[in-house]
Every structure is written in C-alpha cells, then in structure tokens.
Amino acid sequence: MRKTFNDELNKLHVRFAELGMMVNEAILRATKAFMNHDKILAESVIEKDPVINNCENDLEKMTLELIALYQPVTEDLRDVITILKASSDIERIGDHAVSISHATVNMKGSQRIAEIEIEIAKMGKYVCQMFQSVLDAYMKKNEERALKIAKDDLFLDEELRKIRKRCVTIMQEDSESVISGSYYSSVAAYLERIGDYVTNVCEWIVFLKKGEIVELNPNTRKY
Amino acid sequence: MKVKAIKIIRAFIIDFIIIISVIYILLSILTTENGTSLKEILGASEGILIVISAVLLAGAEVGYRYIRYRYNKRELDLLSQKLNDITEGKKPGHILLEPSDPLYGISRTINRLENKQHDFTKNFTIQQRGYFSLIEYLTIGVMILDQDRKIYLSNHAMSDLMGREMNLQGQIYINEIRTYDLSRLIEAAFSSQEDQHSEIRLDLTNKVVDAHVVYVPVSKHRLLVMVLLYDITELKEIERMQLDFVGNVSHELKTPITAITGFSETLLQGAMNDKKALPEFLAIIHKESLKLTDLVEDILSLSRIDASPELNLKEINLRIYITELLKTFKPQLEKKKIKVFLEISEDYVVNMDQNKLRHVIDNLIQNAIKYNNFQGKIWIDGSVDETSWNISIRDNGYGIPQDKQERIFERFYRIDTSRSRDSGGTGLGLSVVKEYVAAMNGEIILESQVGVGSKFIIKFPMEQDIQKSQKESL
Fold first, then answer.
1. Closest partner residue to B179 among A21, A36, A132, by Cβ?
2. CB pairs under 8 A between A and B
3. Cβ–Cβ under 8 Å, residues A113 and A180
4. Which cell locations does it reside in (chain A) (predicted)?
5. What is the pTM of this model?
6. Is the reported ipTM for this assembly greater than 0.90?
7. The domain at A1-210 falls in which architecture?
C-alpha cells in the first residue's frame, strides 16, 4: 500500500515538475519575444498553451484520485494539496505568458518607446529569474529561500508603478504613443501579476514545510 | 569459558580411561603369559600407583594438547585477522610461518591472494580514475541516472549545456532539469525501456543539442539511463550560414544585374530615342553598376585583409579625424535629420592605421544612419585606460534582436530579409568591419535592444606598435 502510494506520488511529482518546466519555458520565450519583437516566437508560446492547460487538468485529476483512493494524512496530504494548489497558480502564470505574447503580436508596427522597453526588459529578466528560483525552492522544499523570493516581488510592484507613471506622462505628451503605451502598461501589469503568483507558490512552500497557511507580502496589491 | 572447561574435563576423563584400560590390558597379557593371575600381583597399593600414574599421564597429555591448541589458535587468529583486513581494504603485512608448520601452505596462499587483490585494486583505481576523468572532460554532456531517477553521475559539459549545476549526486533528475522536451525524452526511456533520440533546443543557454537517452538494464531490479547531449549549435549555424550565403550572394548580384539588363534592353528596343527616358535610364544603369562595383570592392577588401595584415601606424587625433569623416555623411544626415553628438575630448591621440580605421568607423557610422529613425540621434564617444582605448558608436535606431546579434557579422547576412526598409548596402559592411578590427588586434562589442538602439564598441590595445615590431622581428 505504502509503496503504491509512493509510486503514485512520484508520478504526480514528475508531472508537476514538467508543468513547471513548460511554464518556465513559456515565460522565458514570451519575454524574449517581447524584447526582440519576435512575432513567430510569440505565436509559438500561444500555440503551446493548451499543453500546459492539459497538464494542469491531469494534475488535478491525479491529486483527486490520490486523495480519494489513499486518503493520505499529515505530510503526504500536504504534499498532494500543495501540488493541487500550486499547479493552478503556475498554470495562471502560463496564461499571463500567453497574454504577453498576444501583446507582442498585436503591437507589431506601432510606435515604440525606447526607455519603457528597457524597463520592461529588466522586469522580464527579473521575473524569469524569480520563477526559476521558486521552482528550485519548491523542489528542494527550501522555505527560507521561498521567503526571500516573496520579498523580491516588492521590486516588481515598484517597477510597475514606475512604468505606469512614465507611460501616462509620455502618452499625454505624444498621442502617437497611446497604443504602444497602453500595451506597455498592460505587459508590465502581467509581469507584476506573475510576480504575485510566484509569491503564492512561495506561500505553498511555507505550508509544505510548516503546515501553516501564511499570507506573504500582505497589503502590497494596490492598483 | 564453561564450555571450554567441560571440554578439558571430558578430554581428561577420556585420556584417563584409555590409559587405565591400556595398563590393565598390558598387565592382563603379561599375567596370562606368566601363568599367574592378575589378582595375585595387584595389591591395593599397586592399584593406587597405577591410578595416580594414569592421572599424571592423562594430565600431561591434556596439558600438551591444550598448549598446541593455543598455539594453533593464535596462528589461525592471525590468518583470519589478515583475511578480514583484506576484505576491509586495509593493507596488512605478510604472515611468515615455518615451512614445517601445518598452516604453512594456507598462509602462503593467503599472502599470494593479498598480492593479487592489491594489484586488482590498483588497476581498478587507475581505471576508475581514468574513466571518471574521461567522462568529466568529455565535450559531450553526460548524465547517468539510476532506477530511482536519481542522478548518479553528471559531467562538466552537461552543466555547461544546461546552464546550471547538474553534478548533484543523489538528487532526483526532474528537480534539476528545466527543459520540458528533455525530461519527456527521459521519461519516455524509463517507461518504454527503449533508447530515445531527438534534437532539442535548450532555452537557458540557447543551444541546440542532439540528445540520446540510452536505457541500460543492469540486473533484474537495477538499471541505468544515460543521457548524452551532443552540442550541434555550431553545426546548425554553419549549415544555415552556407545556405544563407549562397542565397544572399545571388540576391545581391542579381538585383543590380536585373536592373542593368532590363533598362539597357528597353533602351535598345527604341527607348534611346526618347530624350526624356535616355538620361534617366542611363542614370539608373550607372547607379546599379556602381552598386556592383561596391559589392566587388567589398568582396575584394575582405580577401585583401586575409592576405595582408600589415599595419601602417600613424598618430591620429581622433576628434579631428572623426569630424573629418563626418563631413562626407552630411547629405545623408541632413536627409534623415539625424543629430550626431561627438563626445571625444580634443587631446585624444592614438596610434593606428588610418585607412583601416577609416573603413571601420565609416561603416559603423553608415549603419548608425541607415538603421536609424527619422530625427534619430547618434553618439560617438571614446575613452582610454592603461592598456586599451576604445571608440563607441551608439544610435537610437531600430536595434538588433538578441539572437541575431552574433549573426550580423556574417557575410551577406541581413536581419530584415524582406528588405522593406530599402536601406541599400551590400550586406558585407559589418563583416568587413570585423575583419579589419581583428587585423588591428582589436575587438568589437555589440550591445543592442530592439526598439531602443545599438551600441558598437571597438576596442584596441594600447601597445599596438610594440606588438607589431615584435612580430616583425620574429
């Protein structure tokens, strides 16, 4: 009984890791496509999204089955529940990568604002790194690192505020840049949202380790 | 201890009985020969004497046997201790026994065994070291997984290819790999128990690898899965470069030739009598033939650099030099309303080959203008430190995508293949620049982002003349 449960748990773990990898690739590609104005790469991200959604569905099915059939307790239950919760957060990150890709495709041809592009590129790199470290922290169940990553999210909030403000000023001055300006602020918002979801995953890492449901970075989500 | 005592007592009693019975039998034989009966000779005192002597004899015999036993036991202990040491991998000394000793034979065999085992271990260590360092320094990425999907071994090239530390023994591989395609391949090998093979792009390091996943059954419950990654990024690149080169060259040659043939044909068919068309068409033909000349010029200069890398060094005041260069670009600059900011100090003097440097800066400025927006800006900057000096040319034009940044130095490579921006040029400019910079012992660095602009930095060593004269003296 124990052995079969462990096998099932391992399978679940592998599938979850795969979801992480796919979403990681999706945001890497989406931000790269946005920076390089690469429509083809952006489209490939959009095309791959159904695979990510399927993977999440699989994970949901597998976790529910596991709970129903084996009725895990304590640490095992936490393992399963965390995967169930974290996978939906990660899948949402994948959706945001798709939104960024859509923005990349739609922006083609509109007038660009150089200084904002630099800021967004910086933000994109930061988000990619954050997601990679949160995956690492999850795999190694490293709670301290998770807490640290959650703190990093504050930088993204600050960056979003900055980009929004700058975009608005530029749009007020130059009506030509309204289209791109609005896209820039939405892309920055997507990136910031990804940061929030990463924070959520961090919360689940803490739960996995301690069994406490915590709220990291409360009161920062003001729009 | 108790067992030992019982054993001794038992041996003693058996000895005693045997001795008594031997004496009794001897005596009875003697008495029957003499014709006297036993009872006549044996009195009470003789009886006691016989018993006492039997006890003494038995005691002596048991004592002797005990001492022998102790001696043999010590030797056996030594031998077994040695065997234990051998199995534990220690290096015990040889055991030397007298040739007359009953254990002499076995002691020699054990000594020989030890020698043999020692040789085996030595060979094994050498082989293992060789094997591990071979794997470690292989240029192919190698990772070996066991049946629990844990990393058993992973080499340096693997970490390089994956862009993260992979040599984490005992970790589950799925926690460390970040490429979905590769993990799918490995999972497929585990579930189908068959070798897998595919071409995979690694996002983190931007490399293309030929991935082999080999399934190796070891015994009934044990197996190994080997992941072998062969870096084919360069191969792919060369393949593509060759294809592009042929395509680009024929395109570059064909465009002016088509124009020349087309317009001359029209002229010959009667258009030369048309006073308005004649000069116009001739001008076009002339322009296109000039383009061809440019192209041939560029190709020639490319081959010339390879042939003659000599430098004709002169002192150059960079500010004056570049101001002079910029004059030739005046019409182009005015046409696109581009502003140039020359930020080089007036006392900036360097030693360099004027012609080669002109070619380089000329080309870079040309690109900065060509790939810039209307009313764009260009910054030309320079700085010196102890060992090197550099010039940077920055624009706020179109910019170059990350993955194209290495490719723009290829011959005939164009980012915008549609040529919708109609920028002209031969497609050789930057490759000529790169060759010239290399000929001047310098390097060229590019920083760029799409929509933000590009910055080309050319960097040369300070000690140009000394290096050169050394080369000549050799």
1. A21
2. 61
3. yes
4. Cytoplasm
5. 0.65
6. no
7. Up-down Bundle (1.20)
